[in-house]
Specification:
It is a single chain. This protein is mainly alpha-helical. The protein folds into 2 domains: 72 residues, Arc Repressor Mutant, subunit A, CATH 1.10.10.60; 142 residues, Tetracycline Repressor, domain 2 (Orthogonal Bundle). 63% of the residues lie in helices and 0% in strands. The chain contains 11 helices and no strands. The N and C termini lie far apart (50 Å). It comes from Streptomyces laculatispora. It holds the Pfam family TetR_C_1.
Length: 236
């Protein structure tokens, strides 16, 4: 494969285009933007060098001079969408600043529903991810904690956001694939659940539903999950 390295290599340490020859016809930003458009429209599995090349109007093999591996393409994609964060001046209230970033991350993942799938496999430390980390650490400047502890907090918050949003996305995608409405699906499942609880076999469930019959406030659950992570850090 043209340009594919034989040893581990970080895409960001690599020149924009390997080899000699004329001025590069494309930049990584062009390639990343094309891949993001495909993923947004058709899903992550639809992203391939062939499709990206077709989107750009160039030959597939020529792209390997810019992006040796598909894993590198994924890093480019994550870096591209990470450019969309807004970084206001830290307020001095670290909890409020971290929560605001977490809400931005959730919104970004809903715009680009493929992002949660790449959060674990992709190493990160791309230019825009480093910018995100530097800003997040600046929000934590007033906290008496070691660097490693602050990074743990950032990782825990990102883990909550990614897991929660991935579940929201999966639920929405499943609902769209059903031959009936989400409301009909929920009504059928609720009816079954209530029929089981009414048997008397599940007294704690029955008491719980009597206390809080729903519906679930998904935004509230998201905020409380993050608050618990931040509370545990504050007590540390």
């Amino acid at each position: 494969m043209v340009g594919r390295p034989a040893v581990p290599e970080v895409i960001w340490a690599r020149p924009e285009r390997s080899g000699r020859g004329p001025k590069p016809a494309y930049h990584r930003a062009d390639i990343a933007a094309a891949a993001v458009r495909i993923a947004d429209a058709e899903g992550l599995d639809a992203v391939s060098m062939r499709k990206v090349a077709a989107e750009l109007g160039c030959g597939t093999m020529s792209l390997y001079n810019y992006v040796p591996r598909k894993e590198d393409l994924h890093e480019l994609m994550l870096d591209a969408v990470s450019a969309g964060y807004d970084y206001p001046e830290p307020s001095g209230d670290w909890r409020a600043d971290i929560l605001a970033l977490a809400r931005q991350a959730r919104e970004m993942m809903h715009r680009h529903t493929w992002v949660p799938r790449l959060m674990s496999p992709v190493y990160g430390f791309s230019p825009n991810v480093l910018r995100y980390l530097e800003y997040t650490l600046s929000c934590l400047d007033g906290i008496d904690a070691r660097f490693g502890e602050k990074m743990e907090l950032i990782a825990m918050v990102n883990g909550v956001v990614t897991t929660y949003t991935a579940n929201e996305i999966a639920t929405a995608e499943r609902s769209r694939s059903l031959p009936w409405t989400e409301e009909q699906e929920q009504a059928a499942r609720t009816g079954y659940l209530l029929s089981q609880i009414s048997t008397g076999k599940y007294p704690r469930m029955a008491a719980g539903f009597a206390e809080d019959p729903g519906p679930i406030d998904l935004d509230g659950v998201f905020e409380r999950a993050l608050a618990r992570v931040l509370d545990s850090f504050g007590r540390g």
